[in-house]
């Protein structure tokens, strides 16, 4: 069977990149020989659930990691390459002419708005230019939603594969919610743009008159922000349970302890256009959701009938939404309805077969 090299632009193992993993697992289950090539703290080879993960060190000057990944890709004698995000897309400029093999670009994000938000307008312009030059060289493009797919369709063949949960990672398990006050849960990266400061202030307001707890499964990228948040937690005795990064494959046990899932993205161009994966994970595990507002988010919450969307910039409004949902007598019924809809419509399992089919066509014509 054909060999596929899956190339990551950022660390795959820590935190565990569940999008990369789901696609690699799907291709391996379809009979392909799949290896993941990733930046890491050191160069080594690991085996993760039966898949080979080849790591290259991130030490050295700018560009050193990219050269190591390219060298690894060229030596691997792969029959096709699956390139995740921006830097590996640029590798397509070399990999395809040097090997003659298909190169699939996997775009998880609205990259230009993301670069503008995180690195400024110059980075956004350079990203847009890089996509214009390199994307047409890809054999096919895989992306996460229809809107982004339509935007990228001018560059070539598109496969839309939403980043829905994989049922094997989110089995139907009995709730392990502890006795006592209800528990809210947030899963994901901890940044201001993702709402961590609003979340903590809303919790402070709510706990003045309502006994509730908050678990956070995720990590900070900014040390100053982490210190600020932990100091706020101590100062106001919020009793936040900081779990750190939780392996995606172990997340179901954490979700089962909660009563309400939080997703409080701030209204930026990057976030208003997509749907956060965590909401599907909450719903599929039978957890109602308090979400930010947005055109797609509002429609999803209405469809699932399992939560509420609020102005995520206003801590008082967020606190009121938390109280309203946690005080509902029919919260368990709401959760059950949302879970039924999510398991019917929003699972990786229902759509994953499109990915091996894409590779079958590409490899047949190469």
Q: How do the SSEs run, as a string of H and E?
A: EHEEEHEHEHHEHEEHEHEHEHHEHEHHH
Q: Could you name the CATH homologous superfamily of the largest domain? A: Glycogen Phosphorylase B
How many distinct folded domains?
2
Structural class: alpha/beta
- CATH classification class of the largest domain: Alpha Beta
The order of strands across the largest sheet is 3-4-2-1-5-6-7-8
Q: What percent strand?
A: 15-25%
Principal-axes geometry comes out as globular
CATH topological fold name of the largest domain: Rossmann fold
Q: What's the count of strands?
A: 14
Q: Helix proportion of residues, in percent?
A: 40-55%
N-C termini distance? 15 Å
Architecture of the largest domain, CATH level 2? Answer: 3-Layer(aba) Sandwich
Our Rg estimate from Cα atoms comes to 21 Å
Q: Which oligomerization state do the chains in this entry correspond to?
A: single chain
Q: Outline the biggest β-sheet.
A: 8 strands, mixed
Spans of at least 5 consecutive residues whose pLDDT stays below 50 are none
Total helical elements: 15
Mean pLDDT: 91
Short summary:
With 366 residues, the protein is of the alpha/beta class. It contains 15 helices and 14 strands. It has two domains: 3-162 and 351-365, Glycogen Phosphorylase B (Rossmann fold, 3-Layer(aba) Sandwich), CATH 3.40.50.2000; 168-345, Rossmann fold (3-Layer(aba) Sandwich).
